[in-house]
Design brief:
Largest interface: A-B, 25 and 25 residues
Strand content of chain A: 25-35%
CATH superfamily of chain A: Hotdog Thioesterase
Strand order of the largest sheet of chain A: 1-3-4-5-2
Number of helices of chain A: 3
Largest sheet of chain A: 5 strands, antiparallel
Number of domains of chain A: 1
Distance between the termini of chain A: 6 Å
Helix content of chain A: 25-40%
CATH class of chain A: Alpha Beta
Order of helices and strands of chain A: EHHEEEEH
Oligomer: homotetramer
Radius of gyration of chain A: 16 Å
Shape of chain A: globular
């Protein structure tokens, strides 16, 4: 399973002393960008290629334990579903003690930037997602 | 119903040309802060009073239509549920043409900052939420 | 003088309890976007028109007094210099008691998006800046 | 010299397609947090210890070349000045081709959180800064 390691930064927190809830979404997107890059679908290419966009149409997060500045976290990504023109990722966030601190989910659709309409997932992305989904769970 | 008007800023967007999904969460929280202030529960007081925190334990968002820099939006807030030590808000986001562009939900619990455990909603907040819930829908 | 009123939001702060320094730059840019809009140079038009960009090549901020969540601030903008292909703005930030809490400066250049090179300020923007600069100081 | 490697994320960019200027300040602060941690002055300790704060009283940035999503950058930190109750850091940002893309500077003062007044730099921080300043230029 793909994992991304990072650390909570001061700008991720707010005056309540913990991570600001919306910043958990920012951090999981960092992990998502790296996974897509690993698949060979980097954002620079997608944005300049203009063949398809992958906007998020739904996102959700659960917060299980507080995260402070300096906390080291690991984000694991699992494939949720793979559809014709959509897919979803699930994120499991653990702290340095491997305790679950949060989970999240993002649902993406493939959009043709010219028409603004749904378009089938590119074949290579579909294959990469399926391959990744098959191998999931082998390692945390 | 409480509504909050704002405008998409350049820093809300990303290189794909639209609002970055996590920033919709930031914007609904701005609306939430103002509603709580209207209830008489301002963040400065809560954070310095240290009697209870209201962390978000779940958040979700749906994205119905793209939002660009400069777009004027209106966020309406409805009470979802009111529990013993939790409540939820639902957010309806419309653009200048009153078209639905997104929805969101946040679930909050009341935490005693000293123990880190759940504590009942303060009576006055419970009353404010119930009163607001009763009047909801009378005005957009 | 153009002034922009806003309020420090929870997501502007960090775990030290005050505004995170970089967010003062975000907030002055909000004011800048509104001033440009008032001049008739809105970001949506600039970004889709693709005739010129106005990137910031230098920015600086001074922090005179702490800002907490909920603090109401007013940002006044003055024109610094107006050059052939550049201009600068100066920002004066005051709290609800009209005390100076910060200042900032941004230097912008006009870039032709096709060549990536400097290009003269559009005549109408040059005129708007000169007119605004003449009238500055009449009102705080 | 301490260097920090990172990558421009989608949320660092805006609809103009490049990094949003204020986010360069966020990224240099990430580097600063890691350097302080290396010195043995982690933010969690400082914020809970409450012996002194190190607020930024001045910050500035120059932008030399555009940064896109996915761009890999390296930030080197040099000590600017070391005073009785203040110090400054200078940041040099290079892209993957080692070209200079930006510079920045932050000026910090030591504040006693109880009085809100300046207090001398802790001896150990003063020593760490001096040692780091002496070794600068050896470069990694």
């Amino acid at each position: 399973m793909f994992t991304y390691k990072t650390q909570i930064r001061l700008h991720d927190t707010d005056a309540a002393g913990l991570i600001f809830f919306a910043n958990q979404f920012k951090i999981i997107h960092d992990a998502y960008e790296l996974l897509l890059e690993k698949f060979g679908f980097s954002f620079p290419q997608m944005l300049t290629g203009e063949k398809y966009f992958l906007p998020i149409v739904h996102a959700e997060s659960d917060y299980k334990a507080p995260l402070f500045v300096g906390d080291k976290i690991t984000i694991a990504i699992k494939v949720g579903h793979i559809g014709t023109s959509s897919f979803s990722f699930e994120y499991i966030i653990r702290n340095a003690k491997k305790a679950l601190v949060g989970t999240a989910k993002t649902v993406h659709v493939t959009i043709n930037p010219k028409t603004g309409k749904k378009t089938p997932l590119p074949f290579s992305l579909h294959q990469a997602l399926k391959k990744y989904a098959r191998n999931k769970g082998t390692r945390t």
